[in-house]
Each structure stands twice: as structure tokens, then as C-alpha cells.
DNA sequence: ACGATATGAATGAATG
DNA sequence: CATTCATTCATATCGT
């Protein structure tokens, strides 16, 4: 999981050139000869440690804008970082955790068809909140995509104009929603 | 935002066979072996260009149902697209622009108590009638739902100067006021 | 050199 | 509108 985590590099501040990762193995050659100090944020070990702590120990999964600001301000002491980096970190971390679980459960659920829904522990706290099998056929919600443009036989007629009350028209037409059988886990 | 923009598969030649089949993507042959998932709209470069033009130059931010219809009709010439795609595009674009600001908030505001008298000289001014025949009728959604307020027909005057965040949203931080919340990250 | 994997970043689609 | 989710893209790094 965690591989590549060294290279602390530039704490903001100038240090022109450097190019960060330049070094790398193989000696020389590497470098992209152009500064271009890495395009993406490279978290330092401390930053990751703190982020993990917030995630696992504090139960923070989707920090609010305020939290993100505070967090990034704190992490900035350990290296360059922006709010978006924190935002993405949590987004990705959560998503991948869920994704991983989904894949794992996916297999097991194939073996155990009936999974009584029951009440899921709706707590936002437990990091293990995603219990149960999600399985969620993610492709089913989009199977109803009309040919919108051309080619699908139906031309541009889209009459979703019908004076909808106040919501998005295109949300009604088809029965999309989440998988009926699969239990959507709370968040 | 500027990356990954290949794979245009609009070809409307109604060619039989596979079509679509997601994935592809340059480089990685990843191959998902099945699931023609990529059902989601993949804007073409032209569509994006036009959308951005409407957003930044025309000042359109929350197009009405009629505008959406016209826009999607226009964009359809450049690739498959549906009304909802346009709707979501504007929603997301606007939301992200705002979010960027919110998370960006960095130091600049903390360091500069009060300065930069009047920036924002440059308004979106455009919108003086959306080019063409689009009438500026405020959408029912805005009026009835959410206290959108401004039903005057003029867009909210935010000052995105010419920056065109077209490239990377949060790449450019700019002054934004935000109270330095002191609350500890909690949940 | 590749291929696999981890992960930062981006964005379409939804939901509240 | 704000938030969240799912996917996908882009890279860096490591294993063989």
C-alpha cells in the first residue's frame, strides 16, 4: 500500500530548480531538465501520518471546508500543501477504501446471494461503517441512457420541457435510483 | 481539466457493432473486459470550448431549461450530448469554482488585513442578452426553489477576472475572505 | 523495459 | 447550491 514515501523535498520556498524528484535512480539522466517542480502534491511522511490519524482516529471522512482549511494550515508546517490537496486526499482515501471493500465483498457476495439487509449501523463514526455487501451494480443506473444525440434512432425531440414543478426533469423519466436489492450503505 | 480528452466516439454513423466500449484511453490498455460502462458523457474539445465561452464570456451560470435546450442542440453538432449534460456541466463548473475559493482561502487574506480596494472592476458584464436568441428568462427553479434571489436577469457579480480557470481550478489562489474559524476539527 | 500498483487530480452524475 | 460518489486520467515507484 504505502510505497514510495520518502523524498520530502522542498518546503515551499524557492529553492529554484531542484525539480524534486529529479534525482531518482539511475543517476543523472533522470531529471526532466526543466524545473516544473512536480505538478502534483507529494505528501510528506508527517502529513500522511496526520491525515491518517484524522481519518482513522478522528473518524474524519469528508471534512468540511472549514476543517479542510484548518487541516491544511496545520499540515503546511510540514510541507507545502493546499486545501485542495487535503480535499482530494480524503476523497480518494475514502473512495479507495470503499472500492477495495466493494471488490472484496463483491466476490463473497457472489457466493452468498441472500444478504439480509437489516439495519446498517448508520453511524458516521466507525471506520468500518461500510459493512455488508454493497455490490451495487453500478452500471444499471445508466443503462437507460437515451441516444441523446443522434444515432440511436431517436432524434432530438427531448420534450422534457413539460413545465416541471421545480426539480430536474431528467431525473424522473426513468427509474434510476439505487439498486433495489443491494443495500446501500449509509454514509 | 485539460487532460484526458481523447476518445471521442460520437460517430453517429450508427455503425453496428460495438461502439463505445468505454475504456480505451491512450496508453494503458487496461481493458475492463466487459461492461461498456463509460456511459457517461465525454465532452469533446469543441463542446468544452463552447461551454466555457458561454460561461465566461456570456456570463451564463445557471441556464434555464430553454437555454439548456438550445445549448445542447448547438453542442450536439460537435458530439453526442443531452440536456442534462449541459445542466450538470454548468452546475459543476459553478460549484467547483466556488469550492475552489472556499478551500483556497489561504494565507493571503490572513496576511493582508485590508487592502486591494476595488478589484472586481471586471464583471461578467457580458450577458447583455445571450448572444443569439436566448431570452433571459430566469428559470422557474431559481425563482421558486432555493432563495436564489436575483431574478433581475443579471448574473451575480462575482469577480472572476479573466483568469479562465479553464485549466486547473485551484491552481491559482486568489484573495478571498474567510473567517479563520477556530473550531477544532471535530465531528 | 514493462506491467502492476498506489495515489494525486479531475470531473460527470447525483443527492440533500 | 453544497456535498458526495464513482470513474477515470496521470504519474511515480517498484517488482521481476
UniProtKB/TrEMBL annotation, chains A, B:
The record's GO molecular-function terms, alphabetically, read:
DNA binding; DNA-binding transcription factor activity
Q: What's in the GO CC field?
A: nucleus
**Which residue ranges does the record assign to the Homeobox domain?**
34-100
This protein's name: Protein WUSCHEL-like
The residues forming a coiled coil are none
DNA-binding annotation, residue ranges on this chain: 36-101
Q: Which Gene Ontology terms describe the biological processes this protein takes part in? A: plant organ development
Per UniProt, the keywords (alphabetical) are: Developmental protein, DNA-binding, Homeobox, Nucleus, Transcription, Transcription regulation
Coverage span on the entire protein: 1 to 187 of 287
List where in the cell it is found.
Answer: Nucleus
Q: Which domain of life is it from?
A: Eukaryota
Q: What is the lineage of its organism?
A: Eukaryota, Viridiplantae, Streptophyta, Embryophyta, Tracheophyta
By sequence similarity, the record places it as follows: Belongs to the WUS homeobox family.
Q: Which organism is it from?
A: Cocos nucifera (Coconut palm)
* Stretches the record annotates as Disordered: 1-23
Main subcellular localization, coarse class? nucleus
Q: Where is the composition biased (Basic and acidic residues)?
A: 1-14
